[in-house]
């Protein structure tokens, strides 16, 4: 059981490593090169899992995957924000979580019919495709300006906006912003612990902790165990979750602007609480397999639907907006580290708790 818990939590350990190296890696190598590095981590991780004959190779694969995911969560959002025009930025930033949720849903569907080694090999295919496609993807214009490559910057910006587009106003704005950033002193994480940053730090760290302690790593990493204990067919369970994920992530795109972030976050938190209660209550039932299976599947579905409505993406949006520009990089690194540490705590302990009382009987 301990080895299984270590395997489940190694993704979070890799996430902590990736969180610590994400900012410096992107700043030094650039966003496009960092995405190549990310795909190398992913491919090596998938291959280690697919061809593992000993447990440490499985752990290594999960560790490499975690590093890749943490780097992606940092670089991907920044890259989208930096190459997108202002009038499209919000929509594409919202579209990104939808694509992520849909991708996870597709993997659930494939995983319902493919064994885990085959699934690991399939997982490496998109990484190989992205590595090839990156040859046709330009570097971030803002990164080019920041690193003094102004000739390339203008060519890339023109390419992104179209041959006939007038890029002069936007180019001037990007250059002005880059000059402003260079005038600011480089802040370290310890600089965040000042009284003037206390409130945003509490809010950001609280939201990152909520994201993981709402139970996501436990549900995600040990979903098969939950289905087996509840007497639910894995195929039926994962197909249901795939549908729920796609529908809920689609709804989130339209609801966030209509109801606002705070309201949607509160509804999402209440829904995940209800889903967890339903799941837990189902296991306290004795000798009524129909109700155990039905309530467990309902609880898991309510949990993921609610999570995708708000907790999935809103904390990251709020975190990016509440810090001043001079400490945003340090704040992002701290929040990313807290996010993955919380994930490790939940993913490592969940299996022990499940084994300790899988039926809710603590006597």
Automatic annotation (TrEMBL):
Gene Ontology MF annotations: sugar transmembrane transporter activity
Report the main location listed first in the record: membrane
* Residues in coiled coil: none
Q: Got a GO cellular component term for this one?
A: plasma membrane
Membrane topology of the entry: Multi-pass membrane protein
Can the keyword Membrane be found in this entry's annotation? Answer: yes
InterPro entries associated with the record: MFS_dom, MFS_ERD6/Tret1-like, MFS_sugar_transport-like, MFS_trans_sf, MFS_Trehalose_Transporter, Sugar/inositol_transpt, Sugar_transporter_CS
Q: Which domain of life is it from?
A: Eukaryota
Report domain Major facilitator superfamily (MFS) profile positions. Answer: 1-363
Pfam families, A to Z = Sugar_tr (PF00083)
Task: Please provide the record's keywords in A-Z order.
Answer: Cell membrane, Membrane, Sugar transport, Transmembrane, Transmembrane helix, Transport
Matching PROSITE patterns = MFS, SUGAR_TRANSPORT_1
Compartments annotated for it: namely: Cell membrane
Bilayer-crossing residues are: 6-23, 35-57, 63-80, 92-110, 116-137, 197-216, 236-256, 263-285, 291-319, 331-354
Q: Which PANTHER family match?
A: PTHR48021, SUGAR TRANSPORTER ERD6-LIKE 5
Which family does the entry's similarity section mention? Belongs to the major facilitator superfamily. Sugar transporter (TC 2.A.1.1) family.
- What's the protein here called? Sugar transporter ERD6-like 5 isoform X4
Q: Which organism is it from?
A: Populus alba x Populus x berolinensis
């Amino acid at each position: 059981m301990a080895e299984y818990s270590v395997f489940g939590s190694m993704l979070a350990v890799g996430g902590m490593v990736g969180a610590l190296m994400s900012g410096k890696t992107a700043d030094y190598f650039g966003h496009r090169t960092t995405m190549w590095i990310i795909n190398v981590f992913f491919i090596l991780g998938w291959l280690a899992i697919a061809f593992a004959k000993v447990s440490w190779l499985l752990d290594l694969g999960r560790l490499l995957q975690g590093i890749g995911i943490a780097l992606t969560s940092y670089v991907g959002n920044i890259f989208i924000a930096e190459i997108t025009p202002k009038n499209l930025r919000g929509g594409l930033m919202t579209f990104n979580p939808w694509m992520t949720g849909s991708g996870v849903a597709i993997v659930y569907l494939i995983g319902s019919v493919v064994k885990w080694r085959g699934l690991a090999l399939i997982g490496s295919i998109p990484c190989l495709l992205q590595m090839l496609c990156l040859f046709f993807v330009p570097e971030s214009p803002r990164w080019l300006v920041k690193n003094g490559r102004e000739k390339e910057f203008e060519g890339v910006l023109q390419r992104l906006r179209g041959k006939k587009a007038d890029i002069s106003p936007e180019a001037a704005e990007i250059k002005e912003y880059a000059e402003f950033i260079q005038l600011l002193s480089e802040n370290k994480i310890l600089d965040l612990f000042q009284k003037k940053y206390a409130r945003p730090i509490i809010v950001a760290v609280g939201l990152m902790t909520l994201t993981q302690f709402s139970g996501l790593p436990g549900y995600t990493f040990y979903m098969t165990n939950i289905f087996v204990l509840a007497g639910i067919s894995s195929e039926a369970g994962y197909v249901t979750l795939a549908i729920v994920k796609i529908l809920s992530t689609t709804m989130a795109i339209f609801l966030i602007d209509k109801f606002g972030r705070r309201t949607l976050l509160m509804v999402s938190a209440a829904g995940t609480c209800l889903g967890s209660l339903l799941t837990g209550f189902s296991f306290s039932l004795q000798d009524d397999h129909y109700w155990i299976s039905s309530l467990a599947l309902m609880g898991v579905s309510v949990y993921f639907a609610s999570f995708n409505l708000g907790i999935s993406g809103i904390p990251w949006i709020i975190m990016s907006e509440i810090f001043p520009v001079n400490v945003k990089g340090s704040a992002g690194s701290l929040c990313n580290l807290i996010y993955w540490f919380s994930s490790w705590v939940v993913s490592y302990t969940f299996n022990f708790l499940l084994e300790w009382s899988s039926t809710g009987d603590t006597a």
